[in-house]
Write a structure and sequence with these properties.
Number of helices: 3
Number of strands: 0
Length: 158
């Protein structure tokens, strides 16, 4: 039983480490979108790595849940005997929960930065299209005007 509780604690330690890595990738994503020049390849790399970490997190959660389900009855029946380990596990869970909340806040901030970036990009593309259309219309008008001038000077020479 002691070794199984140690496995639970190791699983929680690994989960905490993965969450810290996710937090670091969130910082990298934030840096990408607060930089003067946005490098989408860095953003893509961070997304891919976070995806891998989230998969790892899911595996750790599944393993923890499976192990805990096997131990739950024994722990419940012998609370006093395993009190120290239970308290240590509960403390780890609180720390992991705090990290999760922090990560959610980071994700919300990053989502806002990404939305602002794409909104700005769409606005710039729209302005560019409008400028292109104006330039094309100006060119077309000037061509028509030049053609009309050429015809009138041709007519007056005859």
């Amino acid at each position: 039983m002691e070794s199984q509780l140690s496995i639970l604690q190791e699983s929680l330690t690994a989960k905490r480490q993965v969450l810290l890595e996710i937090q670091e990738y969130n910082r990298k994503q934030e840096a990408v979108f607060t930089a003067e020049e946005v490098d989408m390849s860095l953003f893509d790399e961070a997304i891919e790595e976070k995806g891998r970490l989230i998969d790892r997190l899911t595996q750790l959660d599944d393993g923890f849940d499976s192990m805990y389900q096997k131990l739950a009855l024994e722990l419940e029946n012998n609370r006093e005997r395993y009190a120290d380990q239970i308290r240590a596990i509960q403390q780890q869970i609180r720390e992991i929960t705090d990290l999760g909340v922090s990560i959610q806040a980071q994700e919300a901030r990053n989502k806002s930065l990404v939305e602002k970036f794409f909104s700005r990009e769409r606005r710039d593309i729209r302005a560019s299209r409008q400028n292109s259309a104006k330039a094309y219309n100006f060119y077309k008008s000037m061509s028509s005007l030049n053609a009309a001038n050429s015809e009138s000077s041709y007519d007056s020479k005859q």
